[in-house]
Inverse folding.
């Protein structure tokens, strides 16, 4: 289970999880578009329809998807900043639902016993206001759990239980 916090100034989210797999495997799940599109999302919430990545510093990445709640399309993308396989990857993050705001995501992967400790830092929310950090915090908790389930058990968007939709009030 992941632990996560939002910094006091609400500029950054930090999270950590132990994954029972070698860090090479975790790095692949984070950077291979064929794998990422399989695990990032959940029926009843949202799902990705495509993922592209040019895995090199300055290379672009982009994910397109659809909200299962309202049927609206979305995208998120950016550029890779640093890559040190299989130890670390960082990239900018620009989400269609946040306007042109650019933040920075960094994953550090450390060998830990038989598995990997994955540490996430998503920073740059200070100018956007606390609500953005709070929303991304909740999202990253889900994303980390989905990645862990994919790497450890092969669970995908298709095999994961659907989120029950609540009736309109």
């Amino acid at each position: 289970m992941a632990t996560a916090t939002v910094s006091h100034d609400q500029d950054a989210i930090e999270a950590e999880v132990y994954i029972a797999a070698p860090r090479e495997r975790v790095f692949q799940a984070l950077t291979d578009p064929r794998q990422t599109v399989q695990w990032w999302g959940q029926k009843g919430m949202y799902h990705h329809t495509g993922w592209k990545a040019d895995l090199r510093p300055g290379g672009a990445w982009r994910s397109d998807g659809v909200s299962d709640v309202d049927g609206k399309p979305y995208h998120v993308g950016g550029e890779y900043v640093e890559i040190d396989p299989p130890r670390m990857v960082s990239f900018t993050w620009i989400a269609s639902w946040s306007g042109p705001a650019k933040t920075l995501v960094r994953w550090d992967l450390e060998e830990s016993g038989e598995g990997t400790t994955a540490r996430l830092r998503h920073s740059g929310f200070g100018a956007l206001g606390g609500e953005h950090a709070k929303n991304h915090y909740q999202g990253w908790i889900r994303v980390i759990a989905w990645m862990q389930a994919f790497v450890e058990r092969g669970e995908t968007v298709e095999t994961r239980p659907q989120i029950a939709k609540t009736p309109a009030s």
In short: The chain has three helices and eight strands. The two ends are 32 Å apart (CA to CA). The mean pLDDT is 92. Strands lie at 3-6, 12-19, 46-53, 60-67, 73-84, 88-95, 103-112, 115-123.
